[in-house]
Specification:
Layout (H helix, E strand, L loop, with lengths): L9 E3 L8 H9 L5 E2 L3 E2 H5 L3 H6 L9 E6 L3 H11 L5 E6 L4 H5 L10 H14 L4 E8 L5 H10 L4 E8 L10 H10 L4 E4 L5 H11 L3 E4 L1 H5 L3 H11 L7 H14 L5 H11 L6 H10 L3 H11 L1
Parallel strand pairs: 1-9, 2-4, 3-4, 4-5, 5-6, 6-7, 7-8, 8-9
Helix pairs in contact: 1-12, 4-6, 6-7, 7-8, 9-11, 12-13
């Protein structure tokens, strides 16, 4: 089954405690062509866990959208995918989460060490779920193991794969090894999505040029600034960089608050901390935001700052 068409080559990555509907819609407004839920437990979905099902919410504006699952039991993953698949364009298997808690249970990047298990899971999903199946993975556990594994994933029937060019051992430290993405692209014929260290328009096109990957997935840079997608698309057209004004950065906070009306006050506070970085006087504003005790207080502080 083919990977869905996207309006451009720049995707929003799945991120724990970040990738809710509001964050996805805000990034889409500024040009993200595709987005994913944060990683969701297949077991929690099967057990109808309310919090997990809430995290799986999406809407008609949030398209195309991928459901990212983690787990190691093929039957559980197939059942979870089938329960929710009607709302999603892609089912994505997480082989990349480096969290010690996840790894200790044999999920996420722990599976990078189990080639036969990965083959079994991907084959089960491909055969048991009538949706494109994709994989997001790291370059390896303690060393680069991706090149052999990606061929197994392709042969098992995956429609595309994402490579975060760090090992599990690196976590989010050090520099992403883009050469691994290049080698993976040369090793398989399915679409390859490159991920790691893209925090500017220049780096986005450098990654595309150096690796020849088909798409780019952006995580932390988009978490801190959804307008990075707009900046990348503008740079593609004109080779000019957009200088964001303080007003635009503050407006992102209001836009997020509007999209997440029923969301967590703590989450809004965190978002505003991200979006106000780089503004003159922003440090003092963030101190005030950190002390705020309600959404109304946060919005008032932002209005007064303007």
């Amino acid at each position: 089954m083919s990977f869905p068409k996207a309006k451009n080559r720049f995707f929003l990555a799945p991120m724990v405690d970040v990738s809710n509907v509001a964050s996805r819609l805000l990034c889409r407004k500024y040009g993200a062509a595709m987005a994913y839920t944060e990683q969701l437990s297949s077991l929690a979905i099967i057990r109808d866990n309310p919090r997990t099902l809430k995290l799986a919410e999406t809407n008609e504006q949030d398209k195309p959208i991928g459901l990212q699952l983690f787990g190691r039991n093929p039957d559980d993953l197939v059942e979870a995918a089938n329960r929710l698949k009607k709302d999603f364009d892609v089912i994505d298997l997480n082989l990349g989460c480096p969290s010690k808690k996840i790894v200790a249970q044999g999920y996420g990047s722990a599976l990078l060490k189990e080639k036969d298990k990965v083959k079994e899971i991907v084959e089960a999903l491909v055969q048991g779920v009538n949706k494109p199946i994709t994989v997001k993975m790291r370059s390896g556990f303690k060393k680069v193991e991706a090149l052999e594994l990606v061929k197994v994933i392709e042969q098992a029937g995956a429609s595309a794969l994402t490579i975060h060019a760090r090992t599990q051992e690196q976590q989010y430290r050090g520099k992403a090894d883009w050469n691994v993405i290049k080698q993976v692209k040369q090793a398989v014929s399915i679409p390859v999505i490159g991920n790691g260290d893209v925090d500017s328009p220049q780096k986005a096109f450098q990654l595309l040029e150096e690796t020849k990957c088909d798409y780019i997935m952006i995580a932390r840079a988009a978490q801190h600034n959804p307008m990075i997608f707009k900046n990348i698309l503008q740079y593609e057209k004109t080779k000019e960089l957009i200088e964001q004004t303080p007003q635009e950065k503050i407006n992102l906070c209001f836009e997020y608050a509007e999209l997440d009306k029923d969301g967590s006050f703590v989450r809004l506070k965190q978002i505003c901390q991200y979006f106000t970085k780089g503004i003159r006087g922003g440090a003092k504003l963030r101190e005030q935001l950190n002390a705020a005790r309600s959404k109304e207080e946060i919005l008032k502080l932002l209005e007064e700052f303007i």
